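Per-record layout

source: Daejeonella rubra
name: MG2 domain-containing protein
length: 805
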Amino acid sequence: MRKPINISFSLTFKITWIIFLLAVISNVQAQQTNPDSIASRFEDFNANNLQEKIFVHTDKEMYLAGEIIWFKLYYTSAGTNKLLDLSKIAYVEVIDKNQKPVLQAKISIEKGTGSGSLYLPVSLTSGNYQFRAYTNWMKNFSPDYFFNKNISIINSLLKPEKLQSDAVSAKYDVQFFPEGGQIIENLPGKVAYRAIDDQGKGVNFTGTLVDQDNTVLVRFKPLKFGIGSFSFTPVAGKTYRAVVEMPGETIVREIPIAKTGYVIQLLDDQDDKLRLSVQSNGVPANQEVHLFAHTRQMTKIKASANLSMGKTEFLIDKRTLGEGVSHFTVFNASGQAVAERLFFKRPSGKLLIKASADQQKYSPRKKVTISLDAKDEKGLSMAADASVSVYAADSLESDNGDIFNYLWLKSDLKGNVESPAYYFTNNDALTNEALDNLMLTHGWRRFVWQEIMKNTMPSFEFLPEIEGHIINGKIVDTRTNAPAKNIMTYLAVPGRKLHIYGSKSNSFGQIRFYTRDIFGPSEIVVQTKFQQDSTYRIDISNPFLEKYSSSGPFELNLSEKSRSRILNQSVSSQVQNVFAGDKLRTFYPALTDSSAFYIKSDKTYLLDNFVRFNTMEEVLREYVTEVPLMRQKDDYTILVRVKPHPNDFPRNVEPLILLDGVPVFDRGNKIIKYDPKKVRELEVVAKRYYLGPLMFNSIINFKTFKGNLPDFQLDTRATVMDYEGMQLKREFYSPLYETEASVSARLPDFRNVLYWSPDVKIDSNGKKTISFYTSDQENKYTVVLQGISPEGKVGASKIEILVKK
């Protein structure tokens, strides 16, 4: 009896073992790393990780408290630079040196562009602030690649942070960056360095590399903007440090040395070729390494080679690389990224966008005509979406770059890039070396290789806002403080324009309301059906991200020489606010659909057309025939008579009761007690209606004269809060001096921003003409033009005009 059993068990064991071995072999094969598998995982990752960019053109970069920041958003694809039509909302913030937002706004985006304005309160202190912009989708990634730039705000009524004459020593930051990521014992390598002051500016200095015996190995100094590099070969067992002689200070930095690892060196010693050498001192002979290169999320190079005597080399044709920043990553045989290097290839395509004035000098209150011209690099005319600013030139203005050097260079590098336009001005050996040093000191990427190599589907907390603003929140059971799941919640915005949205909470208690066309300051009411769900609390999330970039705004240094100029400008600004304040507070109305979400009611009652009764009960009983009313003692129930189908008998159903667009979940008791003389209109929808996840058997909407629930007490369990919708567009004030009377008018015109337009459309012939009038301020004025073509070509230009009597 036992023999056949043993044979069966043995056979089963063998089959199981074979299956196990096949599974192991299959798994090992699946985990093998080669250039194709790296490229496949990288492309899968990119397919699920759309990369967006935002560039913001502000009218200028130095402001006085009490002035207005005017800006335009260019929202593009990170891979192509073309305008995107996906996210419909951008979040804009002004952040102080303590990483606290002082101004915030939500900006509507249409077909890749949007515009807005921010009034700078007179309570702001003088200093550098960070202006940043991002979409809801970008909140899933690091704030380091949001749009960030420094703007200076000066309050002439308050003492500035710091004057250059103050006896305070400057603070310096010195950092070292090994090429590829590590310095390895007994292997030659390049080390880049960067030294900046407390305003983010590069510092000139002299440096010395010494070993533990104070033997001088290398003397070095920066090439440009405090950035440079040197090479050396560390000896095993020795320690090294860099001694940096700054103005008035000596800084010593230890140089960390790894015992084993990989070193890469990228050499650009031919016109069309690059040589990437790979060395390692701790791997078996003939160990295989893989090189993977991508430009702007597109695969460009995938290759393999065996290390011979711990060394190998890849010869790269520059023509295979895309324009812009390319990432070279070296993987070991186990699929681990062991070294990385950046290389920049200058873009050949550019939008050549120019402005030319009809004169170079103008008198006050005279008309200026500027002709705009747009061509590609071949001289062919092309259309462009552009923005133009004309402002008084000021020496305090910083160089934060333009749309061209931002999208091609600055947005793909970590940290502040000083004078980014420098790297595009020339194409000589000195500039190329400085550009390569920049790649060494600012290298980074928008992802982590470990995540890509796991080949797992990423999860995202924030969704792209493809139709409108998403309001997020969480519902909590107040008895246990635990998230409440599968609870239907309702969000409404009181007013004549009906906004009502529904969301059922998920297993984490999270709720999302997909809103549309909510503009300007408003109030929102979020609630559940309290008769069923009386123990829940709803918390609405902050729509702005409370994480910040690793590099904040730098300190603002003001010289005593600038004091008189700032005071004069401040007086002019205050005079302008007094005499033209109303003009500066003019907003365009939001162009939205004013109809109710149910489009059209089955019956509308204008109560002024009927006898005005003293109670709502009388109103409903006397002439609103579609709304039968039931009463048991003091308990009322409002119903609506509907016919589900034409041939069916009418039946009474419980409706959704609205007062100024806000649901009232008490079957009608509060509405019955409400003063009918405050109600202007009553609408009845006598049929079933679906709205997203919501279904209503019928609807009855009470509209008051004021539209803001006057004297109505909402349930105390409802969440009621002020909420800022998408920003209304402010009208830019630019007076016309077309008559002698207007020119000779005694009303002062102290504008220092003569013209701002975020919506300049250059036609397909590459032509556009704009005009404006000068103010009473005699000064040099800078005309800044920035734009983008439908093909994703970008460009910018500047000219100056003079206003003088």
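summary: Residues 1-31 form one domain. The radius of gyration is 33 Å.
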